[in-house]
Amino acid sequence: MSPENISDDLEKLLELLPQSVQSALSKPSCHQDLLEIVLDLGRLPEARFTNQVITIGDQHLSRKEIKEIVNRLGKFGADNRAGIERTLHRISAIRNRQQEVIGLTCRVGRAVFGTVEMIRDLIEGGQSLLLMGRPGIGKTTALREIARVMADDLQRRVVIIDTSNEIAGDGDIPHPAIGRARRMQVTRPEHQHQVMIEAVENHMPEVIIIDEIGTELETHAARTIAERGVQLVATAHGNAIENLIKNPTLSDLVGGIHSVTLGDDEARRRRTQKTVLERASEPTFPVAVEINSRSLWSIHQDVASTVDLLLRGQPPLAEERKLKLDKKESLFNSTQNNSSSQNAVPIKPPIYPVLRDSPNSSPNDKDHSTALNKNTNLTKPLHLLCCGISQKLVEVAIRRHNWPVRWVVHLNDADVILSIRNGLGQNQILRKNAKEAQIPIHVIKSDTLPQIERAITRLISRNQEISTAPQACNSNKPNRKDEFAPLKEGKIDMGKIVVPHRQP
Length: 504
Fold this sequence. Notes:
Elements lengths: L4 E3 L2 H5 L4 H6 L9 E7 L5 E4 L3 E3 L7 H11 L7 E3 L6 E6 L5 E7 L3 E3 L6 H5 L4 E4 L6 H15 L4 E5 L19 E4 L6 H12 L3 E7 L2 H12 L3 E6 L4 H6 L10 E5 L2 H7 L4 E5 L7 E5 L4 E5 L2 H9 L7 E6 L2 E7 L29 H10 L9 E6 L3 H11 L3 E3 L8 E5 L7 H9 L4 E4 L4 H20 L2 H6 L4 H21 L3
């Protein structure tokens, strides 16, 4: 199903607004990217689209016009939100000190079908799933579609905890966009955790869907539900897992953190302070999704490993998926895989074949890449493992020059390791394993695009020379690795003992 299949019932929202706003937004071209309409007392109405904000008319809104809109809507809830029955639109109020409404934010609610195809394998797996992202990015829309898919396609018993009637719309009859899923309304936002527990105890759900977990009581209720064997799908305040770790109220969703005091030997072995932060328990949500944009999502299939890496100051494990028309495209792994994460699903990194020069490249880049790519069709791809280097910069360099390079996440698959100067100093285990496997290490000074491009150019040239050189020539060369092995071992020992501890 295409993600362009959208239902928004925008006409019902426009009927409530002043005539000048209705006339300005009556064209179908204005409906597609409209996010919300802002109505403030004494100001011109504004229509906010995905990439721009348009001021409507030349008449400032009067108190009478705002009052007429409020009368058509009905009562606002304790969270100052109201809706239109059998639609997904949300109207939020701004009040003055006398509790009079002086401003309205009319957010357009849409049922977008097909967006969860990117994570369909995750929701079918039965593990609890947490969605994160900035406001307005589409978290609630994704929850709505997940509810429909799980209830209709997967035939599961789904209960939605609808705090502000935003998932299933206003009124007692839920919107058809949630399919056969059932909806439980919440009288007041502070009672949401009680309704969550009530849903498990009274209605035997297989899946519970919650929008906006934001309090400590809701966090504890989510853990209680997960421990009872119910699959949770929820959203939380925060753009990424790092935000949840720093939030003491919500950190329990990803396992929580506590301070641990290490012994002298252990602190020396880890090369850290004696007091460190570690994950306290297993995460309530084993899988997390960071919604970067409406078509690009970052997937953390092992939240426990991601939190452990972040607490150690290392880049997290993530996979980015991009939605194109009817299909899901897996882009790449953002960091190297953690060997301890047995439940993580391995994603094969893409190989970038040798193509024609990119039309966006500069003339110098074309000459450089043309000279480099003359014989690359005859060579095997270069398997590159990066340490301390941004993968996005490596991706830019590979795509810019169409180099035959594959990003790998395991040392056994690598032909060479590319690292910054301080990268391997913090990862002595990788350095030792690379030495035992006789995998060369190429070190650059800083994590910048020009340095990365020069390094990959040299590595590809060296890879071509090795793959095209006759075997007989290599057999006559003396093996000098054994000669320099003692010097390398001494250098490593100096880095471990002499320099840090200032011993002679």
